[in-house]
């Protein structure tokens, strides 16, 4: 799976859980940290957790494991 396909998968998974303002930022050629950032908003802590869980689930379905996760303890950001 290419980084472009992965970014699209993540954006679609976030949209599945009604994420708002989903934006994919292309960072290719600008940094070595990542090719894309996918940023979105949720209305409540519960929704943010559901969005993060769906993204992780969608990635695992494709055989991709997250390198790390952060912000899920209080689910105000992930």
Structure report:
The mean pLDDT is 92. Helix content is 40%, strand content 17%. The chain has 78 residues and is of the alpha+beta class. The chain has a single domain, classed as 2-Layer Sandwich (Beta Polymerase, domain 2). It has a two-stranded antiparallel ribbon.
CATH class: Alpha Beta
The helix/strand class is alpha+beta
Sheet with the most strands?
Answer: 2 strands, antiparallel
Rounded mean pLDDT score: 92
What would the CATH topology be?
A: Beta Polymerase, domain 2
Oligomer: single chain
CATH architectural label: 2-Layer Sandwich
What is the tally of beta strands? 2
Question: Percent helix among the residues?
Answer: 25-40%
Summarize the structure.
By secondary structure, the protein is α+β, with helices and mostly antiparallel strands.
Topology:
Elements (H helix, E strand, L loop, with lengths): L2 H14 L3 E7 L9 E6 L3 H17 L17
Antiparallel strand pairs: 1-2
Helix pairs in contact: 1-2
Highlighted features:
Beta Polymerase, domain 2; globular
């Amino acid at each position: 799976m290419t980084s472009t396909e992965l970014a699209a998968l993540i954006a679609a998974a976030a949209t599945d859980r009604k994420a708002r303002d989903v934006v994919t930022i292309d960072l290719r050629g600008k940094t070595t940290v990542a090719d894309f950032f996918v940023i979105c908003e949720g209305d409540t802590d519960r929704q943010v957790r559901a969005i993060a869980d769906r993204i992780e689930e969608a990635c695992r379905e494709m055989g991709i494991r997250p390198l790390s996760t952060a912000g899920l303890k209080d689910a105000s950001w992930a």
